[in-house]
Design a protein that fits this description.
Number of domains: 1
Structural class: alpha/beta
Strand order of the largest sheet: 3-2-1-4-5-7-6
Helix content: 25-40%
CATH topology: Rossmann fold
Strand content: 15-25%
CATH architecture: 3-Layer(aba) Sandwich
Radius of gyration: 19 Å
CATH class: Alpha Beta
Largest sheet: 7 strands, mixed
Shape: globular
Bound molecules: adenosine-5'-triphosphate
Low-confidence stretches: none
Mean pLDDT: 89
Number of helices: 10
Order of helices and strands: HEHEHEHEHHEHHEEHH
CATH superfamily: HUPs
Length: 240
Amino acid sequence: MTTAQAHRTAAKHHPRRIALFGGSFDPIHSGHLSVARAADRRFNFDEIHFIPASRPPHKLKQHLAPFPHRFAMVALACADHPHFVPSLAEAGEDFSGTQLHYSVDTVRYFRHTYHEPGDHIFFIIGADAFLDIPVWKEYETLLGLCDFIIANRPGIRAEALRLVIPPELTARPGSKKETEAEHPSQVVAQLHCTTVYLLENVASDVSATDIRRRAQKGQSIHGLVSARVEEYILKQGLYR
Ligand code: ATP
């Protein structure tokens, strides 16, 4: 490549802000979507990838709807949002979603895919899930691979979230990035290369557990999931 071509290529590249939002999504619900929209407003992403987990390592004993159903619902929920992307990152080579995947490997995969200068990866996670992070594979490495955005959930305080992060991972005072100065209350911790943010005022008590229970009892789930997802659950007879 000539120098002129290299300059043109560099000029064309617009650094991408990519959010990863993983979960069982059994089903994807309005709580997930409002977290994603709030994070998008605050951090201005180019893409938010919704990643249905294959069989989440921490939920091995729990019965999950088969991966194709969970993926289909995620795809339907993403339909109205131009930069919400349904992701097959944890579907596995045969797309069955039956192999175990760990978040640390999924983030590595996205870092490999979005590797141009200035590309920035964020990991969106609920506060309840963040409290469990010490049992995740290589969690200390994971915390250093990308920024984290924690969506608060009722009853969880920022202090409890901070305690989950090993002190040796945090940066020395004075080495803080500009972002912290701009939004001090939203930073849970400044790590050596990454930041853990708290997204406040997104707490909602919608949960997939409650939606499955309602569907099982034949109660309405209207408004708790998007209209397309509600229709899909009814047509497929899920959770009955
Ligand atoms: P379940 O009730 O089956 O445990 P869930 O409603 O917590 O499911 P998941 O698919 O397990 O949904 O969640 C994916 C991610 O979204 C997790 O990080 C979880 O903490 C977060 N999350 C789920 N519901 C909410 C909510 N209402 N507000 C904020 N975060 C949420």
